Amino acid sequence: MEFATFATRAEAIERTEADHATTWIVADLLADADEDLETVVRFLLGRVFPAHETCTIDVGPALCREAIAKAAGPNVDTADVEDRLADRGEIGAVAASYDLGGQRGLAAFSTDGADATVAVADVDDTLREIAAVEGDGSEGTKLDTLFGLFNRLDPPEATILARLVLGEMRLGVGEGTIRDAIAEAFLATESESGSAGEAPDDVDGAASGDGEAEATEDGKVVVRESDDVLAATDADVAAVERALQVTNDYGRVATIARDRGRSGLAEQRLVVGRPVQAMLAQAGTAADALEEWDRAAVETKFDGARVQVHYAPPANGDPPTDENTPSNGDVGPKLYSRNMDDVTEPLPEVVELIEDRVDVPVILDGEVVAVDADGDPLPFQEVLRRFRRKHDVDRMREEVDLRFHAFDCLHHDGTDLLDTSLATRHDRLREAVPDLAATLTLADDVETIEAIERRALEAGHEGIMLKDPESPYTPGDRGRNWLKRKPDVETLDLVVTGGEWGEGRRASLFGTFEVSVRVDRDDDDGNGTTHTDPRLEPVGKVATGITDERLASLTDRFDPLVRSEEGTTVAFDPQVVFEVGYEEIQRSPTYGSGYALRFPRFVGVREDKDVGDADTLARLERFADAQ
Ligand SMILES: Nc1ncnc2c1ncn2[C@@H]1O[C@H](COP(=O)(O)OP(=O)(O)OP(=O)(O)O)[C@@H](O)[C@H]1O
């Protein structure tokens, strides 16, 4: 597929507002993608690599702006690109606003005069090439390669490339839309209920369906209520969802759905070495748990960082031959964070522990916690000193002692356990790692649960987890089968979107940080889906709780993220998530979110969270209502 075709269709998706119409156009695009299907799916999600691969193209906003400036010609410098960014607010629009290198010039044609169009596969290859560049001079090589690509693109293509490079596609296509579109494009014909979802007629490049299409002032195409509903059934969508949960690879699932249909999807298995999305929890009380289930499984809530362990010991057999066969030999131990980043290297003692204790293939879920000399838990911030460390791992190992607590088992000795009950999974967990398994107590009265909670708090833990003992493991889901209970007021995990330079002694440091919530299109789906296209709205400014030393390190960290500057106020590229405490949430016209935090206080940087994991406006509103 030509990249220009992809860009035009992406533009139409962006202009379309109704969810079902978006699903149609995406389904239509997937059906036309042929051999580029996997790439198209990833591009729509703003990714070059599937989520379970730890590769990144490692091009920051500054380098991307420099490449655009270079492609825009000798009269344009990075400062000019930054000005336009401050003006237009979005890198795609900025890239499209320049007459880049060859757009209308000679470079659009190869030397023999043939039209040198760029294919989706060319863009993918080039971005992978950029990802692979390492070592001295890598910045320069990445810049030249990216510039070379921008140089060959038309404005709509340049928009998409710039957004892709920075992982912000802004098409309003979340993971849920892709899931539905895969079902619509490739499974709907298999259902008895009807024919495949028909892509709607084209109206000005965007979907119309049978309903009346109407362009609004901002150019979005709204499709009014129509008889034309999606053809995919709930069962189709569930089949896709299931395969996504085990493979964690949208591109791959799309291809399997197209080529092998439902039976192919049903055959997908967990693979030791391929991380799975973490199951998440909602806040809840003992009374909530006992109201919802007959009995609650009660566990300590450890105050550390989530780690998923993948290991297949070498003695157990040969390495996997087919990547869809549960591996039975020689993988890892590999450790993954809650966001599926590879954290094996920073945590060597966990690797050694697993190698030492485990003798069959496993996928375990758990938490690493920093502990003091007596083995008592230390605050969460301590574990983060170890978690993403690339240098001085050995020295830090001496400084911060870690414990690994395993609380779930997703795969054990050739058997996938996602669909079995928590109680069964816990039995397998104890079989796999008897002395690393968290204690799980079944309770059917509030008093027992409260006693466990008191003991957990006295021992220095964060609180307790309450889990439905009958529930399956649902990757990526923040449902009500796991409830977390901790006494402290919930903190919020907010994206840092701006800042202000300090005054006097602190004039060379950022002194205040503007923090924002995510406002996603499908914000209120309530199912914990990670959305790739967040809009961010401020809720307050954090200035307290930060030491001078910390401010200095934060200033170094945020300096390269400055997107624009006006007086002492700066806007940052949204990349860092702060955990923020507060006394109260108030309604307020001051900020775009409609809320303001009273006495916001810096608790720490959530190194384990990306922008897509930050709290949403919907969650903030729930907290505000519950005050
Ligand atoms: N026994 C346990 N079972 C499950 N999760 C646990 C347990 N102990 C600690 N945790 C941690 O608690 C988290 C569950 O809370 P949640 O899903 O809300 O994540 P979060 O947003 O990081 O919340 P928080 O900031 O409260 O930890 C898990 O991701 C895990 O890291």
From TrEMBL:
Keywords assigned: ATP-binding, Cell cycle, Cell division, DNA damage, DNA recombination, DNA repair, DNA replication, Ligase, Magnesium, Metal-binding, Nucleotide-binding
Enzymatic class: ligase
Residues noted as binding ATP in the record, renumbered to the chain: E299, R306, R338, E367, F407, R478, K484
Gene3D superfamilies assigned to the protein according to its UniProt record, in alphabetical order: DNA ligase, ATP-dependent, N-terminal domain, DNA ligase/mRNA capping enzyme, Nucleic acid-binding proteins
The keyword Protein biosynthesis belongs to this UniProt entry's keyword annotation: no
EC number: 6.5.1.1
Biological processes, Gene Ontology terms: cell division; DNA biosynthetic process; DNA recombination; DNA repair; lagging strand elongation
GO molecular-function terms, A-Z: ATP binding; DNA binding; DNA ligase (ATP) activity; metal ion binding
Highest taxon above the source species: Archaea
Residue segments, region Disordered: 190-220, 310-340
Transmembrane segments: none
Function, in words: DNA ligase that seals nicks in double-stranded DNA during DNA replication, DNA recombination and DNA repair.
Entry-linked HAMAP family: DNA_ligase
Family: Belongs to the ATP-dependent DNA ligase family.
Name of the protein described by the UniProt record: DNA ligase
Species, as recorded: Halopenitus malekzadehii
Gene name linked to the record: lig
